Amino acid sequence: MSEKIISSKSNLQVLYEDNHIIIVNKRPGDIVQGDKTGDKPLSDIVKEYIATKYNKPGAVYLGVVHRLDRPTSGIVVFARTSKALPRLNKLFANKEAKKTYWAVVKNKPIKDKDTLTHWLKRNNKQNKSYAHKNEVPDSKKAILDYNIIKKLKSFYLLEIDLHTGRHHQIRSQLSSINCSIKGDLKYGADRSNKNGSIHLHSRKLTFIHPVKKEYITITAPPPSDPIWDDCLAND
């Protein structure tokens, strides 16, 4: 399986770039945008990359289109122009971007493939979402499709297509069927990963370019560790 990386300067993996957008492969532990931790966000790293590569003086424009949870990895899209940003925002808000994730779980789902539908209620104090089978006050409907695509030595690799984009949706919904993601203590995993990551990866993204109006499909390699490497290995 070929995994092409354009750049890895400053540990930044650039998967695609042109005048209007830049798409990178987020490492687990990186935050997409600055928060109260004060840790350097991925957005600043991308700005530095652009400033250096194109010798841009002064402030670099970069619009944050969407985010990934800090312990997850994978595809993150940024806008490089004020023309592209609102178009990308609308595209993601209207669910016109097809997102595919990989998740490694210890327990095998009852069905090899299924559609999960829940009502998620967010608890801001805990920074956690709870999945309910029926609608409850202040809940939002969440739908995903999953498919077991590989049996590993002690785990299962699931491919997940999202129909909605809710807070911690994949983590919460998989936990509700007793299939917590490896390393995800918050949602029921029996132990954490040493580096604080969870084995959830934004693997593939397909959307129409906001300016060129052409279909773009991006595939991101997962981080290199024994389990992810096993996921990529040929049987």
How would you describe what is shown here?
The protein is 16% helix and 33% strand. The chain has 235 residues and is an alpha+beta fold. Strands 1, 2, 3, 4, 5, 6, 7, 8, 9, 10 and 11 form an eleven-stranded mixed beta sheet that branches. The longest helix has 12 residues, at 42-53. The model is unreliable at 1-9 (pLDDT under 50).
Computed CA radius of gyration, to the nearest angstrom:
18 Å
- Average pLDDT, to the nearest integer? 92
The main pleated sheet reads as:
11 strands, mixed
Instruction: State the distance separating the first and last CA atoms.
Output: 12 Å
The SS-based structural class is alpha+beta
Helix content: 10-25%
Number of helices: 4
* Coarse morphology: globular
* Portion in beta strands: 25-35%
Topology order in helix (H) and strand (E) letters: EEHEEHEEEEEHEEH
Pick out the low-confidence regions.
1-9
Number of strands: 11
Task: Write out key terms for the chains shown.
eleven-stranded mixed β-sheet, 11 strands, 4 helices, disordered N terminus, 235 residues, alpha+beta
Please describe the topology of this protein.
Layout lengths: L12 E5 L3 E6 L15 H12 L9 E2 L8 E7 L4 H10 L4 E8 L7 E11 L4 E5 L7 E12 L4 E7 L6 H8 L23 E9 L6 E5 L6 H7 L3
Parallel strand pairs: 4-10
Antiparallel strand pairs: 1-2, 2-4, 3-4, 5-9, 5-10, 6-7, 6-8, 8-9, 10-11
